[in-house]
Design brief:
The chain is an alpha/beta fold and about 1250 residues long. About 40% of the residues lie in helices and about 20% in strands. It contains 41 helices and 37 strands. The strands form 6 sheets. Strands 26, 29, 30, 31, 32, 33, 34, 35, 36 and 37 form a 10-stranded mixed β-sheet that branches. An 8-stranded mixed β-sheet has the order 1-2-3-4-5-12-6-11. The protein has an 8-stranded mixed β-sheet with strand order 19-18-20-21-22-23-24-25, sandwiched between helices. β24 and β25 (about 790) form a beta hairpin. The longest helix is centred in the last third of the chain and has 37 residues, at about 1210-1245. The chain is flat and about 185 Å long. The chain starts with about 35 loop residues before the first helix and ends in an 8-residue tail after the last helix.
Length: about 1250
């Protein structure tokens, strides 16, 4: 059975208006039905349903009979009978309105111990004798008024607490009812901080009276809104959102519409019992109550003493300690008729105690004449299921809320304020604090009417800026300002408006607005400080060049603005050097002064403060000393008070050159004689304007939020509403736009400085040979004291935006894999790719330019002829075309930004163009024929060397005769003793013949046995030793033979340049005519390289004939390794097998770089970006990706010599064995013929001899 746990927030019996039932163990929550549907469902039964045609989801319906039984018989109770609905509500007797001087305006609610206030601004306290009629009126608006009606009925019947009910002064025309329970702990312990409100759904317009009620309800303080119908809360939310934040808890009202199942005492286990709670139990219940911080113990004691309250106790609880006397589960009726605080101790859960208590208390509440109802969180499915089983049904939704205003604080440093007043303000004797209070009241009245926006005024600067503040206006010195900022509780959401002294770093622009009080003519230091805060001049070091325009005090301020560290700025203070030019005497003197400054060439950032005419002199000198380039930044400050336009000054434009980074700060302040709209205000002027902009932005934001509230549902508001930081961003944007012009004309005295930037990058080359562009100037921004730096473009636009998207012209060609140009079928370029274009693409991204690729003509130096589209022939760079020289010419003549080619950085080319850092190093090597296997005819002889075979053959010839003599000499043999059997002739067979012994040794070597063995131990010993010898020889032979079958023997490989030169008589070599290798060899003084060049053949083109020579004619091709790898890959694709190999020896590496004009100022800039790419590993990655992929031809001759070829033994491997077999058979056949011939000769010879006849 589901019981109530303490896992979620439960509501107090006094001020929390409803029970918050939660699942046991904190299970998942589900959303309930819409509250409006429940209202319509119940109210339609009574005939009082409000007329609203808005479509809603259907709520659970229950029968008219059950509704009337619940809402007619039980709600009013036995003493108060229901009456039929009336067209007009009953009139409650009105007490006479007290005179104006009786109470007076109440700005702060009274404390709890003070007298109850009988009158508010729009409401009056309902006397006790009028409460029954008020109950009558609330009964007519059931079920929307259920909570309010039951509360009043409980008050009249049981008097749990001294409640306070208020109605409007013109009741019932404006039917709004307030209830102040006074039983809870409100946020600040004040009586009127906790309240609930009721108003009929068709008269919500009357709630406007709450907005102006500032006597009973102080909207500038935190408030506790007890559970209130959601439709009323939505109106309050729309009204309150621009005052502060709202924390809500929603609940569904479930009402008992049928009697619960009969209660059986047997439902409880025998070891526990049900008891009525007493005051002694209140302490244990209160200690475990989740919301005990809002409820006092006395509230529980009164509820338990007056209303039904039950607990389940162990029967032997009287015998245990006091700590164990608390109930296992309990449930108490609240003062408004609902059941609340159902709790079960964790160790007693899932025993059915909860539903047992709910049945018991439901029956008791009904018996007392009340309607049992509960408020359940929409996501609490377990509690919903429990009460549905008990006959409860959902009516509508209600909301409880904590209203927390976000006040605005004004911190006013009186001493600082008095010191910064303008002369006119000081002469008038104005009180800044009083003026600000009056200005605030006027602004609120004009923008919000009676809306109670709270403002706090402080004259001490040691306050803490709380995180609940909405905005703060600080008027104090720089040190105090930053101390307040750093000590604030939450600077991430607070909106700052500050007025401080000149030279003070502004607060972060994303968090607020800072206005320094700047004196006319002393603006330079503040401008520099603001530029540093905006990170426009984030220089690690700089040289300040100034003349007599600046006095000592101004230089001291500028030095402070530059050198002091700024809070919230990520760049450290720069190292500053200063050069005083004094009064200009002559060009030569000034040039010498600047040129003699130590370490001038290492300085990259310059700040020049001088008059307009002197600027031209300094710019000429800087250019002549080569101090102006893309790596340096020059900021010129013109402090002359009369505005001077530099936009179209031809003298100035003529001093701007390609690649300069130059910006200007120009004093654009207008004199009072030039305009009547400028007035120099003081600190009060700035304060009023900032407050005006703040209130206007709050009003605009409030209007926007109200539109959003009307568009979305309440439960969607938490997702739709902006965060605090987003709110601050919108307010800040609105304030900045509002004060930009207003401050300039009313308070800044029309002080303004304009900023201009020179546009100089990409002037030469991008448009081709048609001509050069001129430098120009653009407006970068403006500075005013009130708003600070307002930039339209970066001050040094080329530093941040590079070439500003300009299209530059580069020259390239088709030379894979370095740079590839793909054409479609119509001959149009569709793609540029390759290693070099990877680098160019990254450069274009980093330096912010696009590029156009042009091709040099094959036949004519320069671009492709005008009027003719470039073709593939124009783009392909073969060895016979003059493309490479043509590209060098284009770069040298400054027609292109760079040559995007893999160009070798040779000495001859470096005299014509300027190369970037090397992007790759490409060595040279040579291509040779792939080593082939040696003949395998005599493979069977390979396991042993020739000497080994001779030794084995000799051993066989020697051991055979040795065996014969040992056998013959042994006394154990008959032959050895010289005896012969009488009946046997001489024994000439077996081991008694030398040839037999030799053949035996051979047979044993072939692992063949013998028929006859020696009889003597000496002969046997020879046999045994020979067999061991044979075993070792045969085993070694077999193992080596397998190895030779697996690892074939290769022809000698040429792997190094030295090895090639050693074969000079048997091999030839060649290289490409006009190649870089030929030039490198010509310039080399190494004898080996000179010999290599002298004996080398010059090839005009790489064709099939040349490759055929390399493959089969012992010829070698010397070239770049990358090109040879491509040749290998192409040959593999063409033939399907590998015919070539590369040498392991690399020599004469070429450095590959991008070619730029010698006079180009961007080479160092490009080198800087290339160095970054190298450090990031991008260039290595692109190079590996562009080079040919590793394939089965990616081997060297040396590795081929050890290549393992696992294969089955074929005829090539065994051909030597068959040849030996054939030779043996032929030899045997010849031997047989010879034997036959000898036999015939012997017979013929024997026939010619006459032998005597022997009988």
């Amino acid at each position: 059975m589901s019981v109530v746990s303490t896992a979620t927030l439960a509501l107090p019996c006094g001020g929390a208006d409803a029970i918050l039932c939660s699942t046991t163990g904190g299970r998942g929550l589900v959303e309930g039905e819409g509250w409006w549907d429940g209202v319509r469902s119940a109210a339609s039964v009574l005939g009082t349903a409000p007329q609203d045609t808005t479509p809603h989801r259907a709520a659970p319906q229950y029968s008219q009979q059950r509704a009337r039984r619940a809402l007619s018989s039980a709600i009013l109770g036995p003493a108060l009978h229901p009456r039929p609905p009336k067209q007009q509500p009953p009139v409650v007797k009105s007490s006479p309105t007290p005179p104006a001087n009786t109470l007076g305006p109440l700005r702060s609610p009274p404390q709890r111990e003070m007298e109850v206030v009988p009158y508010g601004k729009n409401f009056r306290l309902v006397p006790e004798d009028e409460l029954p009629e008020l109950l009558d009126y609330l009964s007519q608006h059931l079920p929307q008024s259920l909570k309010f009606q039951q509360t009043l009925k409980t008050f009249l019947t049981d008097r749990v607490w001294d409640f306070h009910f208020y109605v409007t002064k013109d009741w019932p025309q404006d039917p709004v009812v307030l209830h102040f329970p006074g039983i809870t702990h409100p946020p600040n312990g004040l009586l009127y901080e906790s309240f609930s409100v009721f108003c009929p759904n068709d008269r919500l317009d009357a709630l406007q009276l709450l907005q102006t009620e500032d006597m009973l309800i102080d909207w500038t303080r935190p408030l506790y809104l007890n559970f209130t119908p959601k439709i009323i809360f939505e109106w309050l939310q729309e009204f309150y959102t621009h005052i502060g934040s709202i924390e809500t808890v929603e609940g569904d009202v479930y009402i008992s519409v049928q009697d619960p199942p009969p209660l059986q005492e047997t439902e409880l286990p025998p070891e526990v019992e049900l008891r009525q709670l007493c005051k002694e139990d209140a302490k244990a219940i209160h200690d475990l109550y989740p919301a005990r911080d809002m409820e006092c113990l006395e509230a529980f004691e009164k509820c338990i003493d007056t209303l039904p309250a039950y607990g389940i106790f162990a029967k032997d609880a009287a015998d245990v300690e006091d700590a164990e006397k608390r109930p296992a589960a309990w449930m108490v009726q609240s003062y408004y008729g609902a059941m609340f605080s159902m709790q079960t101790l964790p160790e007693f859960r899932r025993k059915g105690y909860g539903i047992f208590l709910a049945k018991r208390l439901t029956a008791a509440v009904k018996k007392r004449g009340y309607v049992p109802f509960v408020v359940i969180r929409p996501e609490n499915a377990a509690s919903q299921s429990l009460y549905l089983k008990l006959g409860f049904e959902k009516l509508y939704q209600t909301v409880r809320a904590v209203l927390k205003p976000r006040p605005i604080r004004i911190v006013l440093d009186i001493e600082f304020t008095n010191s910064k007043q303008s002369d006119s303000e000081r002469n008038k004797g104005l009180d800044v604090l009083g003026e600000l209070k009056d200005a605030w009241a006027e602004l609120i009245r004009d923008n919000f009417g009676q809306l109670p926006l709270k403002v706090e005024f402080h004259t001490r600067v040691d306050v803490i800026l709380r995180k609940d503040l909405s905005a703060v206006l600080i008027i104090t010195s720089c040190n105090n300002l930053w101390r307040l900022y750093n000590n604030s509780e939450d600077s991430n959401s607070l909106l700052y408006l500050a007025i401080t002294e000149e030279g003070c770093p502004r607060l972060p622009a994303k968090e607020g607005i800072t206005v320094p009080i700047v004196t006319r003519g002393q603006e330079v230091a503040q401008i520099i400080s603001d530029l540093r805060a905006a990170e426009e001049i984030s220089w690690p070091s700089l040289l300040v060049i100034f003349d007599a325009w600046l006095d000592a005090d101004q230089m001291k301020q500028i030095f402070k603005a530059i050198s002091e560290a700024q809070p919230k700025v990520r760049f450290v203070s720069p190292q500053m050097q200063m050069l005083d030019l004094g009064y200009f005497s002559s060009y030569d003197m000034v040039r010498q002064t600047i040129a003699e400054f130590p370490n001038l060439s290492s300085i990259e950032h310059f700040l020049v403060i001088t008059g307009r005419e002197n600027i031209f002199i300094v710019m000429k000198i800087a250019k002549s000393l080569r101090l102006v380039n893309p790596s340096t930044q020059w900021l010129y400050v013109l402090p002359e008070t009369q505005y001077y336009s530099l936009t179209n000054d031809s003298r100035l434009i003529s001093l701007l050159h390609e690649g300069d980074n130059v910006a200007f700060l120009i004093n654009a302040t207008r004199h009072s004689s030039e305009t009547n709209s400028c007035s120099e205000g003081g600190i009060l002027c700035y304060s009023r304007e900032l407050l005006r902009a703040l209130v206007a932005s709050l009003a605009s934001y409030a209007a926007t939020e109200q539109i959003t509230l009307k568009r979305v549902a309440t439960d969607e508001w938490e997702e739709e509403k902006l965060s605090v930081s987003e709110r601050r961003k919108i307010l800040l944007k609105h304030i900045t736009a509002g004060i930009a012009k207003q401050l300039g004309e009313t308070c800044d005295g029309c002080m303004a400085w304009k900023m201009r930037s020179a546009i100089t990058w990409g002037l030469k080359g991008p448009t081709g040979p048609s001509g050069d562009e001129e430098a120009s100037m653009i407006e970068s921004g403006i500075w005013r004291p009130g708003t600070g730096v307002d930039l339209y473009n970066p001050l040094f636009t080329h530093i941040k935006h590079g070439f500003r998207g300009k299209q530059l012209t580069i020259v390239s060609c088709h030379a894979p894999p370095w740079h590839e140009i793909q054409f479609d079928d119509q001959g149009q370029v569709v793609k540029y790719s390759g290693f070099i274009f990877d680098i160019v693409d990254e450069l274009s991204s980093r330096l912010n330019f696009s590029y156009k690729v042009v091709f040099p003509a094959n036949t004519v130096k320069g671009f492709v002829a005008e009027g003719r589209e470039p073709t593939l022939d124009d783009a392909v760079a073969d060895e016979r075309s003059p493309i490479w020289d043509n590209m060098i010419d284009l770069v040298q003549q400054n027609h292109v930004f760079m040559a995007a080619t893999a160009m070798s950085m040779s000495a001859g080319r470096e005299s014509r163009v300027r190369f970037t850092l090397a992007v790759a190093s490409q060595p040279h090597t040579f291509l040779v024929a792939k080593p082939r296997q040696m003949s395998r005819t005599l493979l069977f002889l390979s396991p042993f060397t020739g000497k080994t075979w001779l030794a084995i053959f000799g051993s066989t010839l020697l051991v055979g005769p040795a065996l014969y003599f040992i056998h013959k000499a042994s006394p154990a043999t008959e032959l050895g003793r010289g005896l012969r059997p009488k009946n046997v002739g001489p024994n000439k067979g077996g081991l008694n013949r030398i040839m037999n012994c030799i053949w035996y040794m051979y047979g044993a070597l072939m692992q063949q046995g013998a028929v006859q063995l020696p009889t003597a131990d000496s002969g046997r010993l020879v046999f045994g030793i020979w067999w061991i010898f044979v075993m070792v020889i045969v085993t070694s032979y077999c193992g080596n033979l397998v190895a030779f079958l697996t690892f074939p023997r290769m022809n000698p490989a040429v792997t190094t340049l030295g090895g090639l030169l050693k074969l000079r008589g048997t091999m030839t070599w060649g290289l490409m005519r006009g190649s870089e290798l030929e030039k490198l060899l010509e310039d080399s003084s190494v004898p080996e390289f000179n010999y290599l060049l002298n004996k080398a053949e010059r090839h005009a083109v790489v064709d099939d004939a040349l490759l055929e020579r390399v493959a089969y004619d012992r010829h070698v091709l010397l070239e770049r390794r990358s090109r040879l790898l491509i040749l290998q890959s192409l040959q593999l694709k063409k033939s399907g097998y590998c015919s070539f190999a590369l040498a392991t020896d690399d020599f004469l590496p070429e450095q590959i770089g991008l070619a730029m004009p010698i006079q180009s100022p961007y080479t160092n800039l490009v080198n800087k970006e290339i160095r970054r790419m190298q450090q990031a590993g991008l260039i290595d990655s692109w190079f590996r990706h562009a080079m040919p992929r590793r394939d089965r031809c990616w081997v060297t001759p040396q590795s081929l010599a050890t290549e393992v070829n696992s294969h089955s033994v074929n005829l090539d491997d065994m051909q030597g064995s068959f040849i030996v077999l054939g030779i043996g058979l032929v030899a045997a056949f010849l031997a047989a013929i010879l034997e036959r011939c000898f036999r015939c000769l012997s017979i013929m010879k024997a026939r010619g001899i006459i032998e005597p006849f022997v009988n």
